[in-house]
Amino acid sequence: MLATRRILLGLTVAALTLGAFPNLSTQAFAQDKTIKVGTLKLIHGITPYFYEKFAPEGVTIEVIPFESPTDGKNAVVTGTVDFGIYGLAAATLGAAAGEPVVVVGAACNRGMAVVSGVDSDINTIKDLMGKKVGIWPGSTQEVVILDRLAAEGMTIKDIQPIRVSFSDMASALERGDLDAYVGAEPGPGISLAKGVGKIVEYPYTTPTGSLNMVLTTRQENVDSNKELIEMLLTIHSQATEYAMSNREDFVKVAMEKLGQTKPSIEKAAPNVELTWKIDDKFIEQANYYGSQMLDKKQIRQLPDYATFIDPSFVNAIEAE
Q1: pTM of the complete model
Q2: What pLDDT is stored for residue 260 in this prediction?
Q3: Across residues 219-234, what is the average pLDDT?
């Protein structure tokens, strides 16, 4: 058995050199190592682009962008990537179907918005009645809007749901193809910056709260490669804290990686809370979220939460 790994959570890049990992085996870093991390092409999936700042010497981070949460989840399951950041919905769908998806960290709260045309008469969720609403199936946003509709005495049958990817929602609204959309940043920020959209609601009033995206890996790594998870999660925690504390750099990197203008990113940024901790509230909200997916028949059974969400790596870092 390898000795128990303990990782010191430093606060600077220097603290994350090999010297900051005295109990990690030399063999683990005997040669250059590349860690593949998948993330969505959204502003709240931006954290991995800061990983290189905090990676130990000899470790390279390869960031692979995905268009949809399902693509990101499938990449984790197949081993195309070592880690993936995407919505809780896709992770829950996979785990409920018996796929080896494990949530090892949080990634983002907020980042959602219901947006309508700036001159439209859609000002509340009830005003969506009969309207063409862009929704990405299998996303966290879909589960949240179904919950919000139910709270208003409505169902999905009361609107016209249109399948639209997150990256196309803002342009579809601008063209008039949609009356509204349930989007992910920077889409809402783009609509606001262009003056073509308005916020109907930031849908965080359900018991799911603002819980949105998660950091995942596959069960194989949890079983036999814990040191990899410990290292990546340490990097993830520091990159998260850095990005949230350095808003100018956050905006700059988001512009570079998403190809958006500064005004749209600046409109989107306040609606994004990058995070990494799994606490009791996270677990409570995730369990509620799964129950909503089951109730709406999006899954046939609940995932085994004892294995689906593993807070041990976050807890170890916090203990340090």
Answers
A1: 0.83
A2: 84
A3: 96
Q: What angle do CA 213, 215, 220 make, to 5 degrees?
A: 140
Cα distance between residue 9 and residue 12, in whole Å: 9
pLDDT category of residue 85 using cuts at 50, 70 and 90: very high
Whether 7 and 19 have beta carbons less than 8 Å apart is answered as: no
Q: Tell me, rounded to whole angstroms, the distance of Cα 36 from its chain centroid.
A: 16
Q: For residues 308 and 288, give the distance between their C-alpha atoms in angstroms, rounded to a whole number.
A: 14
My answer on whether 261 and 292 are in the same domain is yes
Angle, vertex CA 69, rays to CA 114 and CA 46, nearest 5: 80
The domain of 275 spans 14-109+210-319
Domain boundary among 201, 232, 262: 201
Let me know whether 169 and 286 are in one domain: no
